[in-house]
Amino acid sequence: MKAVILVGGEGTRLRPLSCDVPKPMMPIANKPFIEYIINQLKKYSIKDIIFSTCYLPEHIENYFGDGSDIGISITYITEEQPLGTAGAVKNVEEYLKETFLVFNGDILTDLNLDEIIEYHLSKKSKATIALTAVEDPTIYGLVELSKDNTISSFLEKPSWDQVTSNLINAGTYVLEPDVLNYIPKGKNYSFERGLFPALLEQKEPMFGFISDSYWLDIGTPAKYILAHHDILEGKIDFRFEGKEIKPGVWIGKNTEVDSTVKLASPSLIGSNCRIESNVKIAGLTAIGNNCSIKKGSHLEGCVILDDCKIEENAIIENSILGKGVFVGKKVYIGEGAVIGGNCAIEEGNHLSRGIKIWPSTRIEKDKIRF
Ligand code: GDD
Ligand code: MG
Predict the structure, then answer these.
(1) Gap between the Cα atoms of 148 and 185, Å rounded
(2) Ligand 1 pocket: which residues have CB below 6 Å?
(3) What is the value of pTM for the model shown?
């Protein structure tokens, strides 16, 4: 069976992290996020994958190539203009002659694919949508079911007064090729506002597959941090790079950690890092490769991407540092701050309350006390 992965979105809600990296390539525990999706597909023997790309496609193609290194076959189809989620699948119609899968490229889930495929076939469904229950359906696609789990309505991003269920579109579909006939060619058209409502109107059999698997859309900074916390806490099975030096603490190759460092579980440090004396790494911290953390700094609950340099006595809490960030002495970064790649935050700055700093910005000494 073939799988189409939608990876063309601009990831606007994940800016500034997605300014120079497409969302599916954002590292999760030091590996590009879609590698996790690919491994899930391999687990179910699905090895024929079509990446539908648009925004920064070369990042994905340069990393995975034709997939032969990892035992799969990847076809890349790039849109010049975004075609929308369904338009993107129409665009690869020539590859889809049998029942196929579609994945949103930003969902961390361990959904059982055998079960949803079997369910789809047994119901003779034309379109089967994985569903998950959430507290706030207004930021997703709301789905209502009839008694036999036939979908009776689909409403994308409903307002609170339209919320009649807690089940939402989990972003995985099993589809029959003939539903593609309802999608206009070469136009921007979505599953959510276009195809699904059209299939309902045409009374085509559409079913919801309710799942209680782990599920998270990683598309905002807060959820991106949460994905790391959940992975570190073992809420979803994940193969970490590196060695587990004590329960829940993984360290990559060639990383030096001074003997005075307090390293709490669960945490992850990449390869080629230097962690100096009296650094405190509290739990739920993920540090990338080639990072250095100097004396007395304190990290907790944060995600630090590759090539970051943190000077002495800095504090970083529940925040994200993009790739190649410099953090000066006694800097405080906390409360969900997001620092874009290659920024330099010089000595004494205090960044908090979800502040977002765009890539390559330099903040001079003692400028921000926020
Ligand atoms: N190729 C291509 N072209 N891909 C696209 C395009 C496009 O024009 N637009 C979006 N995508 C990709 C994104 O890269 C992402 O992987 C996926 O389609 C979904 O887009 P998002 O922008 O992340 O949508 P969302 O999170 O607001 O809502 C969607 O996901 C929810 C679950 O997280 C909808 O499918 C909702 O119904 C659903 O509940
Ligand atoms: Mg999304």
Answers:
(1) 33
(2) 6-9, 52, 54, 79, 82-85, 88, 104-107, 140-141, 156, 168-169, 171, 192, 217, 219
(3) 0.95
